[in-house]
Write a structure and sequence with these properties.
By secondary structure, the chain is of the alpha+beta class. It has eight helices and 19 strands. It has two domains: 231 residues, P-loop containing nucleotide triphosphate hydrolases (Rossmann fold), CATH 3.40.50.300; 103 residues, OB fold (Dihydrolipoamide Acetyltransferase, E2P). The strands form four sheets. The protein has a six-stranded mixed beta sheet with strand order 6-7-8-3-9-10, with helices on both faces. The structure holds adenosine-5'-triphosphate. The site of adenosine-5'-triphosphate (ATP) has 12 residues, from β2 and α1.
Length: 346
């Protein structure tokens, strides 16, 4: 498969501040790529350099095999979607979507066909004469998405496109994004700080922290084999147990921490088969499962379970860690268990 998007040896500074430094980034055609990182990690800088809205100090940007580093945004085949929709308030839905084609002086018939095609994909038929303020946030973002796609760009670039929407709409719109990207066979790059959104949408996730790429891979790779403590904890749903407690678990103390995901611990009122006894301090009922928070040796642990089996707040419970699923970290890096001869650390 050929790369549709490449960045090589990119460096971007603002004064003395390093905002982005990356050696190599490549996304294949038809990939849904997600750039994930905390605030200030360089995500928007990466996207703006891809879009041609910001020039890198060094390095190159290649789209569809063509070096576009020196080209302004409007000469790159990119569609842009921003967090705040950025629609023209005085134009109708139809006029907003048509705008990139109107400016490029396409014929009215041609524009009409393409606008209606996208109104259909975005389920906005019947809304075309409304103004942005007459639409919900989710509808406005679908208009912005249609506008970004109307000229069939080589790459769709989206900066936090779902962050202004409430939780339910956000999840609905995730479906639109992924379905549209699949239907049109486009390469998408989506920037977010939300790990769940990244996991739900990405074929490939790139984790950024402090201007650097921490890890790139499929959601499954990043989730099950995070390279660093940062990647493991940023994806969430993990308990970190500090080194002092490791000998109690039969593990040498020369690791900084042990990580265990919330679904890889089970709890039982039966306490005879474990040395780990904890006290339940909180139970969150999520409708389809529970998140139990407990205290163990001065540390808080979270456990996800489908069934409480008689466990209440304040229960003393036995804690059973699935030792085959633990992660061990030293100097901020995950050490594969096999390397340490810890096949059965329990
Ligand atoms: P957020 O999620 O908060 O938007 P981000 O990961 O998108 O964060 P960037 O917007 O890429 O981060 O910014 C990376 C760093 O570069 C930040 O510390 C930011 O303050 C700095 N920065 C970005 N643009 C400029 C600028 N024009 N001038 C000076 N510093 C900037």
């Amino acid at each position: 498969m050929t790369s549709q998007f490449e960045m090589h040896n990119i460096r971007k500074t603002f004064g003395k501040f390093l905002a982005l430094s990356l050696d190599n980034l490549e996304f294949d055609q038809k990939t849904y790529a997600v750039i994930l990182g905390p605030s200030g990690s360089g995500k928007t800088t990466l996207l703006r350099i891809a879009a041609g809205l910001e020039s890198p100090d060094t390095g190159s940007v290649v789209i569809g095999g063509k070096d576009v580093t020196a080209l302004p945004s409007w000469k790159r085949s990119v569609g842009l979607v921003f967090q705040n929709y950025a629609l023209y308030p005085h134009l109708t839905v139809y006029e907003n979507i048509a705008m990139p084609m109107t400016v490029a002086r396409y014929t009215n018939d041609y524009i009409k066909t393409h606008v209606h095609e996208l109104l259909d994909v975005m389920e906005l038929e019947g809304q075309e004469n409304k103004y942005p303020k007459q639409l919900s946030g989710g509808q406005q973002q679908r208009v912005a998405l249609a506008r970004a796609l109307i000229k069939k760009p080589a790459i769709l670039l989206m900066d936090e496109p779902l962050s202004n929407l409430d939780a339910r709409v956000r999840i609905d719109l995730r479906d639109y994004l992924k379905e549209t990207q699949r239907k049109l066979g486009i390469t998408a790059i989506h920037v977010t700080h939300d790990q769940e959104e990244a996991m739900a949408l990405g074929d490939q996730i790139v984790i950024l922290n402090k201007a650097l790429v921490i890890q790139s891979g499929t959601p499954a790779e990043i989730y099950s084999k995070p390279k660093t403590l940062f990647a493991a904890s940023f994806l969430g749903g993990i308990n970190l147990i500090s080194s002092e407690l490791l000998p109690d678990l039969g593990i040498r103390k020369d690791f900084d921490a042990l990580g265990v995901r919330i679904q890889d611990i089970s709890l039982s009122m039966e306490k005879t088969n474990t040395d780990m006894i904890g006290k339940v301090i909180n139970i969150q009922y999520l409708g389809y499962q529970y998140i139990v928070t407990l205290e163990f040796a001065g540390t808080r642990l979270r456990v996800r379970t489908d069934n409480l089996n008689g466990i209440n707040e304040n229960s003393e419970v036995g804690i059973y860690i699935d030792m085959a699923k633990i992660m061990l970290f030293r100097d901020g890096n995950r050490i594969p268990i096999e390397e340490e001869g810890l096949e059965s650390p329990a």
